[in-house]
User: Fold this.
Amino acid sequence: EIVLTQSPGTLSLSPGERVTLSCRASQSVSRNYVVWYQQKPGQAPRLLIHAASSRPPGIPDRFSGSGSGTDFTLTISSLDPADSAVYYCHQYGSSPWTFGQGTKVEIK
Amino acid sequence: QVQLVQSGAEVKKPGSSVKVSCKASGGTFTNYPIGWVRQAPGHGLEWMGDIIPIFRRTNYAQKFQGRVTITADESTSIAYMELSSLRSEDTAVYYCARASSTWFLVDYDHYAMDVWGQGTTVTVSS
Assistant:
């Protein structure tokens, strides 16, 4: 089973700041099949990035993903108050699929 | 536009079973795997397994093997997740999820879950 470790656990930043979230896998993720989700309280997760770096239509371009192998990153180029949420990485490269433990982003 | 609508909240006794439904609308049902993910209170997301309706092929996380059964009814476009021998640790929100289009579906074993149900709260308490 691939273990995904996210860091940091919590971030507290001001609007407009650049945010970098890390997701490290215990072994290489097949074909970089990594998703980043945003989850707000009481809501289902929302897909931001898939296949490590593909951003679907409708997702603001301030969100970007990068990385390969075992190290993946989600970047928010300019933090918006609406970005306050927990962010999860998820690998669908090999069964069982797994999720990171999440990074909470707070807005000052 | 694919939508997933789940059944309502459940309260169950320890040792019993729960069956949660997930109705798909607005897209093709049979060719897209449907996954199940749960989230215990204050915790992260946990993948339980999935089903490919057209083949009725299931894949379960080892943690839930023997306790979970995922099925799909093509005639009604509804997927089901049944969890047995419930214990207090199974108290969680249960989600169904799937890829909405081939944009997210690489193959039956690799797909990004971009459409989610609203979640079903299952409470296990004596």
Notes: DSSP finds no helices and ten strands in chain A.
